[in-house]
Amino acid sequence: MPPCRTTTVNPQPANIQDSAGCSLRLLPRRSDDEILSLTGAMQNNKPTLAGMMTLGDYPQRIYPNLCITAIAVNGTVLQPDDGGERFIDNKRYEGTIAEMLEGALGFVARNGKTRVVIRDGKRTDIPEYPETAVREIITNALMHRDYGPYCNGTPIRLVMFSDRLECWNPGGVYGGQSTNDLGYANMPTRNPTLVSILEIEKIAENRHSGIPVIRDEAETHGVRQPEFIDQRGSFLVRFFNSSAETNASDHDATPGQDKNSPRPADVENTILAYCAEPRLAQEIANHVGRSLQYTRREYIRPMVEAGKLSLTLPDKPKSKYQRYRLTNAA
């Protein structure tokens, strides 16, 4: 990132020095000015945008809309309630990326519901949205948003609906890739200097693991898979809660389909016959007229565990090229 137009915000190297000891052994030997220059926080004795967003005192003094706006609404659409109120909660988070991240995480935790489960006499609080997934979603938005001159006037938008969490940021999938490549392909980075400093600070990592973590958290949490939408130069993540599953049809039936038929056993037999040839999960879902998420959860995974279906790529169970075939045991 190029130098900013002012030097009124000066990055401090303390965070980099404290964090770099184990991962980058050469930095602690350098002077403060050398550290700031080598990491890209300063250039030509001026702070870069990456430096300000990670180490500055108040980056929004120069770029007021490089922030996060967060709202919570009572419903599945953004509209006033019966009392004319549009939002349950409405906040704006500023500061460095680390400060905005922690603020937004607190917003989700405060406005999300908590389910209490008693196991073996012990109480366990289960949040509506798993913190690991939320952290990855917001971190990815802060790391990979477009900070260019045509987008630095646009904030990241976080919206909590009754059935889902949405995080929108300017800047679509970078480098000519598509959403189908997320989590699978080795993708280029839009903001390499920013990402490098965040890695040194141990706030984030650039290992292309964020999307798989979000997907895994949804599966572990027992909710439908998240949606990643790249549209018109922006990127949107939708992470659903259990309400979305409850509000949906019990079988996620396609429009016009009788929700009470066919029986699960009949669907399983249909899948077994169809998988005499290796099939993608989406092909199976289309064949039985169910959503992909529902088909995976209710049929494919149980049938794999029961030994009725096998994976064509057993060493890569989450591969987008994964297919399922009928086993001899079935």
TrEMBL record:
UniProt-annotated stretches for the region Disordered: 246-265
Gene3D superfamilies in alphabetical order: 3.30.565.60
Coiled-coil regions listed: none
Record-linked PANTHER family: GLPR-RELATED TRANSCRIPTIONAL REPRESSOR, SCHLAFEN ALBA-2 DOMAIN-CONTAINING PROTEIN
Protein name per the record: Filamentation induced by cAMP protein Fic-like C-terminal domain-containing protein
Organism superkingdom: Bacteria
Ranges of residues in domain Filamentation induced by cAMP protein Fic-like C-terminal: 296-327
Source organism phylogeny: Bacteria, Bacillati, Actinomycetota, Actinomycetes, Bifidobacteriales
